[in-house]
Write a structure and sequence with these properties.
By secondary structure, this protein is an alpha/beta fold. Helix content is 30%, strand content 19%. The protein contains 10 helices and 13 strands.
Length: 317
């Protein structure tokens, strides 16, 4: 669900600082009906072109007013938006930096458009930001039933001890040969890193280091091929060298080509949604979680409660 913002309806800007005041002026110059600026410390707001309302008095506003978040520190947006939402304000435009849903990406685009004075901006509704769908995290689909996705390196291993070529990658050629010590080990393990770096004889690094112009596009277009292991992680069939190269460059997520049904099995949409519902409005996790829907959440090591551990355990299983 989404809605459009028109120039006739009343608008409020949240934040009266170095970003908020210029934003307010820009919106007025663009013809928007800006009526008020909301700030925690209204007495400190200078040169406001409209009245300034203290956050503590926000109940004086009609809850149907559209509020644009103009706070310079992006990671604060989600927490502020949740505070406003719990007070009945549902028409919010902010930067949901921890969320990776399609709605969240559309919200960021809408924020950027509105920030520079764009009009007829379509804004996703608040609740849709927290909806988790496995398909939202697929960046390319194939008619063959395979999809291209990003997977955290900790959930990727080298080729398995046994490979069914017909059931998975049709042109699979063993990259580890008969070296059992290279089979089914974490792709970022020292053994795998050493083997697939030295084995390339430097040609791979040389090739990609000289291809920085299309660096990201090149890897997205040519992901490693992998299959889901019964233990819940992916085994690479083809693309060990590419994956190790990305890890050596500091990347934590690796593009993979996998079967769509295996992606859905790995993603665990129902369990992910349950945990996301619990995390709604939170700006951190008490434990690291490499699931695609939660990968951008900061981790603030804390004692997790029993409910979180229960939901966390179901998703990790």
């Amino acid at each position: 669900m989404s809605y459009k913002i028109t120039k006739n309806e009343p608008i409020a800007v949240y934040g009266g600082g170095k970003l908020g005041i210029p934003t307010a002026i820009k919106l007025l110059e663009s013809g928007y009906n800006l009526s008020v600026i909301i700030d925690r410390n209204p007495d400190e707001v200078k040169n406001s072109p409209v009245p300034v309302l203290a956050l503590s008095n926000i109940d004086k506003l009609n809850t149907n007013i559209f509020i644009f978040m103009s706070v310079g520190i992006g990671p604060q947006h989600t927490g502020i938006a949740d505070t406003l939402f719990t007070q009945g304000f549902v028409r919010l435009l902010f930067l949901p930096l921890y969320l990776r849903s399609t709605a969240a990406k559309n919200m960021v685009r809408a924020w950027n458009t509105f920030f520079v004075g764009g009009y007829d901006v379509e804004v996703p509704d608040y609740d849709s930001l927290w909806c988790v769908y496995a398909d939202d995290f697929i960046y390319r689909k194939e008619k063959s039933g395979y999809v291209n996705v990003m997977v955290h390196k900790d959930d990727i291993h080298t080729e398995g001890l046994e490979m069914n070529r017909d059931n998975h990658y049709w042109s699979y050629v063993p990259s580890c040969g008969e070296d059992l010590h290279l089979k089914d080990i974490p792709i970022d393990s020292p053994v795998a890193q050493k083997h697939f770096t030295e084995n390339s004889s430097g040609w791979l690094s040389s090739f990609y280091d000289n291809s920085m112009f299309d660096f990201i596009e090149s890897f997205l277009d040519n992901p490693a091929s992998a299959g889901l292991n019964e233990n819940g992680y992916f085994n690479i069939y083809d693309g060990h060298h590419r994956s190790v190269y990305l890890i050596n460059k500091g990347f934590k997520a690796i593009p993979l080509r996998v079967k769509k049904n295996e992606w859905q099995q790995y993603f665990k949409e129902k369990e992910a949604q349950a945990l996301m519902d619990y995390c709604k409005g939170r700006d951190s996790l008490p434990l690291p979680l490499h699931h695609p829907a939660f990968i951008k959440f900061p981790v603030c090591i804390d004692e997790p409660d029993e409910k979180f551990l229960n939901l966390y355990g179901k998703l990790k299983r």
